[in-house]
Amino acid sequence: MEINNTGIKKLSGSITSPKGYRATGSHIGIKERKKDLALIFSEVPAKAVGVFTTNVVKASSIIWNQNLIQNPNGVKAIVINSGNA
């Protein structure tokens, strides 16, 4: 384990290395042959963060996620899709 100057601990391993995290990926047809959907689950609520467009025109999913990360109780799961913006 390594700690950088921001105080963030870098763990070796994978997304499931921290205690209480599970993850899975699947091919659902967004990409032709590769896994294109991921689910990351935390046994306890965790702080969610995001980087979003500054464009005035935003999809409803962007607005929903911007509101979601403001939840002081955190989130227990995120779903990530690949291949379409």
TrEMBL record:
Entry GO MF terms: L-glutamate N-acetyltransferase activity; L-glutamate N-acetyltransferase activity, acting on acetyl-L-ornithine as donor
InterPro entries the record matches: Arg_biosynth_ArgJ, ArgJ-like_dom_sf
Segments crossing the lipid bilayer: none
Pfam family of the protein (one): ArgJ
GO biological process: L-arginine biosynthetic process; ornithine biosynthetic process
Annotated PANTHER family: ARGININE BIOSYNTHESIS BIFUNCTIONAL PROTEIN ARGJ, ARGININE BIOSYNTHESIS BIFUNCTIONAL PROTEIN ARGJ, MITOCHONDRIAL
Name of the protein in its database record: Glutamate N-acetyltransferase
